[in-house]
Design a protein that fits this description.
This protein is an alpha/beta fold. The chain is built from 13 helices and 13 strands.
Length: about 375
């Protein structure tokens, strides 16, 4: 098969880029002809290593450069112009390459990709969640403009998703929000590494990973850790990520006197090494598309404590078996569960072993064979 993946860029350590590179590499290793097409990368190098036979194309449109423009109408006019340029270039590329399947990650191309009559099957991947828009309105910037924009985007997504040959979401929980979609499929992401070793869950360290913004809500985790620290002062919390909340988080940590206990670390390419040197993963997100970091932690054999936000944690964590699910905003229970795992080594190790076992349902071969079956089914129609 000839397959094209389309996403904004592949130059940053984001989950979509990581998962797409794994998919492309696996398909290339199986002998498929694979392209990764990006819109905004320009001269930046790829962050993730690609198989030698994976082909790359970037249109260098620069949609993101308009985000800082404070003049709304000027920004709108420029974006319309860039969209026209992008559409013409992408149409020409697809007609020339003649792919069997084109996969969109629901970004700028999703508005028009389904309209192309080139003969390829069009697949739409949703790396977000339907209720995530509601969570953004609840936890994001509380302005009329933001609420209107998010409501518009939600309605647009609902309309566009029906237009594709297949619409793929990541969780059974999210699938329930897309009623009446005959093209709906559920295929979770895969774990991003096949771990050949596991943590012994003995390091006195809890780890958290993600972008430092209102979605991941690490300020809640710092508050929780202040409670944990009172009972377990010899344990530390390491957060790995970058984003707009970094400065405020550092100020919060300093104001609580936790500078020697809680550390904000930059993202690392080899997160497996950090997970193997940790004993518990904590996730305090307000919403998720899936929860890649949970599966990565489980692959390293460490239990997870996470808020049961929509969508992802309920699909991944079996409460009390491979980790703990906490109802949102219950910081007291979150702290209690962390302390329970910290103080009970046998429970920690038992849950870590179960977590590793649970992670195998997200093995790359298993997930990618499901994708291949979907592609083949579409091509038979």
């Amino acid at each position: 098969m000839r397959i094209v993946y389309i996403l904004p860029e592949l130059s940053h350590p984001g989950g979509i880029g990581r998962v797409t590179s794994i998919k492309a590499n696996w398909l290339a290793e199986q002998g498929h002809d694979v392209w990764i097409v990006t819109a905004n990368q320009c001269d930046a190098p790829d962050y993730f290593e690609l198989h030698v036979s994976v082909k790359r194309k970037d249109f260098a449109i620069g949609f993101q450069s308009e985000s800082d423009n404070k003049y709304f109408f000027l920004k709108l006019i420029r974006k319309i112009g860039k969209m026209r340029k992008y559409r013409r270039g992408l149409e020409r590329f697809i007609y020339e390459e003649k792919p069997d399947v084109v996969v969109s990650t629901f970004t700028n191309d999703s508005d028009f990709l389904y309209k192309l009559k080139d003969g390829s099957k069009k697949v739409l991947e949703f790396h977000f969640s339907h209720d995530g828009f509601k969570s953004q309105i609840k936890y994001g910037p509380k302005t009329l403009k933001n609420r209107m924009l998010l409501t518009y985007r939600m309605k647009k997504h609902e309309r566009i998703a029906k237009k594709y040959d297949a619409f793929v979401v990541l969780t059974e929980e999210d699938a329930k929000s897309w009623k009446g979609y005959g093209n709906l499929h559920v295929i979770s992401n895969m774990k991003t590494f096949g771990c050949v070793c596991r943590s012994n869950c003995m390091a006195k360290r809890v780890i958290a990973v993600g972008r430092l913004d209102f979605q991941k809500k690490f300020d809640r985790l710092v508050d929780i850790w202040a409670m944990v620290n009172k009972e377990c002062p010899d344990w530390r919390l390491d957060i790995f990520g970058q984003g707009p909340d970094r400065k405020n988080l550092l100020l919060q940590i300093a104001s609580m006197g936790l500078m020697d206990i809680v550390k904000i670390n930059p993202p690392v390419k080899n997160i497996l090494e950090e997970l193997l040197n940790s004993s518990i993963l904590a996730m305090t997100s307000t919403y998720e598309g899936w929860g890649l970091v949970l599966v990565e932690a489980m692959s390293a054999g460490i239990p997870c404590v996470a808020y049961a936000c929509k969508c992802g944690p309920r699909d991944i964590i079996d409460d009390g078996q491979n980790g703990f699910l906490i109802e949102e905003n219950d910081m007291q229970l979150f702290a209690k569960r962390l302390v329970e795992l910290i103080k009970n080594e046998a429970l920690r190790r038992k849950m870590g072993k179960k977590a590793l076992e649970s992670s195998h349902k997200y093995d790359v071969d298993r997930i990618m064979n499901t994708w291949v079956c979907l592609f083949e089914e579409l091509l038979r129609r």
